[in-house]
Automatic annotation (TrEMBL):
Gene3D superfamilies reported in the protein's UniProt record: Ankyrin repeat-containing domain (1.25.40.20)
Statement: the UniProt record of this protein carries the keyword Nucleotide-binding: no
Stretches forming ANK repeats: 57-89, 223-255
Protein species of origin: Dactylellina haptotyla (strain CBS 200.50) (Nematode-trapping fungus)
Gene Ontology process terms (BP): protein K6-linked ubiquitination
Protein name: Uncharacterized protein
Transmembrane segments: none
Taxonomy of the source species: Eukaryota, Fungi, Dikarya, Ascomycota, Pezizomycotina
Keywords from the UniProt entry: ANK repeat, Repeat
Length: 282
């Protein structure tokens, strides 16, 4: 490690972060972050397990990295599962500090790692309000863009069969039943692309996905097609039956008034069409 010197300090938590008396390893870590010594910071974290260590003002290493706009450090700390919602003693969170700084790249990273947007500092200001007060008006639109971005990522993950990525995105706020920019839904995309592991996750997981199963299978994409439309067209008898048992509606109509039965017939799947017809008669 570089020959880092330490200084004493007691700056207010809202002002220039100062090194603190006490833990010398924490002092070295703070100085490494302040002076943008990335490798020194990593060594301090990995050797001394200081990932969530707070100074006397409640500042964690991640908070300081955000304060000093150290993008690479923020990336590293988040990769080590640093708490994205850490706040200093004045209740300013990492996200609030990034918004106040107008730092879009760091803000995006924090949001993707579960940073909450509805927090308030001790003056009752949210991250969005702090951004506006400091003239960072692009930050407000970034919050809106983030919602669409993670929905796009979620549907793409369904298309690629990445259940782990889908789980991570749900944890940071994605609603599985809302479509992407094109209006596609994850379940419909998974059925079209034969992503059975994704289909199973979306239909069976009740831990991460709070939405009732009937709502999941009845959600409609941009053309008002439900999961049952897609499964019927593919002729997947087992999946059609699974969706029906989960609450799928055999009378659901797409934007052209076509039902799953018609999709089954278009796909020349007579047995599936018969199943749908029998289900309607129940």
């Amino acid at each position: 490690m570089s020959n880092l010197s330490t200084t004493k300090g007691g700056a207010d938590a809202d002002g220039e972060p100062a090194l603190v008396d006490g833990n010398p390893n924490l002092q070295l870590l703070h100085l490494a972050i302040k002076e943008d010594r990335n490798e020194d910071m990593k060594i301090c974290i990995e050797k001394n397990e200081l990932i969530e260590c707070q100074d006397e003002f409640g500042r964690t290493p991640l908070y300081l990295a955000v304060f000093y706009r150290r993008l690479k450090m923020v990336e590293f700390l988040l990769s080590k599962n640093a708490n994205a919602n850490a706040a200093c003693e004045c209740k300013t969170t990492c996200l609030s500090k990034a918004a106040e700084n107008g730092d879009i790249e760091i803000l995006r990273l924090l949001l993707l790692n579960g940073a909450l947007r509805d927090t308030q500092n001790q003056d009752g200001e949210s991250p969005a309000q702090l951004a506006e007060r400091n003239g960072h008006f692009l930050i407000s639109s970034e919050f809106e863009n983030h919602d669409m971005h993670i929905r796009n990522e979620f549907v793409d993950a369904a298309r690629m069969g990445s259940v782990d990525k889908m789980k991570r995105l749900i944890k940071v706020g994605v609603d599985p039943n809302i479509g992407d920019r094109k209006g596609d839904l994850a379940l419909g995309v998974a059925i079209k692309n034969d992503r059975n592991e994704v289909i199973q996750f979306l239909l069976d997981d009740d831990t991460l996905i709070a939405t009732p199963k009937d709502k999941r299978v009845q959600s409609k994409d941009r053309e008002s097609k439900t999961a049952l439309h897609f499964a019927s067209y593919k002729g997947d008898m087992a999946l059609v039956e699974l969706i029906l048992n989960a609450g799928g509606n055999p009378d659901a109509q797409d934007s052209h008034g076509r039902t799953p039965w018609q999709y089954a017939m278009r796909g020349k799947h007579r047995k599936v069409a018969d199943l749908l017809e029998n289900w309607r008669r129940k």
